Amino acid sequence: MITMSEQQEHTEPNVHPLNVMQSLKGILTEKEELAFMNILFSSSASLRAGNFGLSRKEVEKQLRIEQDEQFYSFLQRVNQALSRYFQVIYDEKRDQVIVMMRVPARAARSTLSKESLAILLFMFYQQEVLQHEFTLFDQLLSAFGHETTKANQRILVNIDQLRRIGSLEEYDTNSPEKAYQLTAIGVNIFSDSFLRRTVEFSQSHQLNKEEVLKFFKRYNLYQEGSDQ
């Protein structure tokens, strides 16, 4: 799992980011260190497909704890030690404890296409800023393409790409309309610095559809009749 962050100018690159994990020995017990490593291992998309991370019950079993404060203390201490490179999150809805790795936004392009990023950022604005419970497929189609078969297919391909990394899931609207909801991974995939720079670019305190599209310099990702 990755979370995108903007590198600050004039800072040295992190040549050996995994060296920071040595500091865990002074903060975590041996059981806690092993539990973190198991969460890290199980958070790989290539290993677990859509079933990322470990359940809270499994983590508590490995830690031999039962109380809420012990569980959240473990998450807090890991995040304090590794916040420069990793973030441990607990997705209550899906009951998954997941490790996300911080990488520069430029490096994240190898994981997600520009179209997928635009769709994800649009959904982030709708659900995290406007507090919509879900995003309809028709809203994505209206924002990013024309009502053509090709646009439908291209958007679905990008949605599938986002689903494979666990950032969104289908939402049951009890109607024929397709809808999607961000998971905890999708909510946390954009770092604060990335979002701040996005807002600064838009010259607004809030993002809207036009500003999101302008950010990616793509006012209509799928031109009608285009082969792109």
List keywords for this structure.
single chain, 228 residues, alpha+beta, 11 helices, 6 strands
What does this structure look like?
- This protein is α+β, with helices and mostly antiparallel strands and 228 residues long.
- Helices cover 47% and strands 12% of the residues.
- The protein has a 3-stranded mixed β-sheet. A 3-stranded antiparallel β-sheet has the order 4-6-5.
- A hairpin with an 8-residue loop joins strand 5 and strand 6 (179-182).
- Helix 6 (114-129) crosses helix 8 (149-164).
- The two termini are 28 Å apart.
- Residues 5-15 and 224-228 have low confidence and may be disordered.
Report the uncertain regions: 5-15, 224-228
Tell me the span between the first and last alpha carbons.
28 Å
Question: Structural class from helices and strands?
Answer: alpha+beta
How large a portion of the residues is in β-strands, by DSSP E? 5-15%
- The general outline is globular
Mean pLDDT: 76
Q: Portion of residues in helices?
A: 40-55%
Give the count of helical stretches: 11
Count of DSSP strands: 6
What is the rounded Rg? Answer: 19 Å
- Order of adjacent strands in the largest pleated sheet: 1-3-2
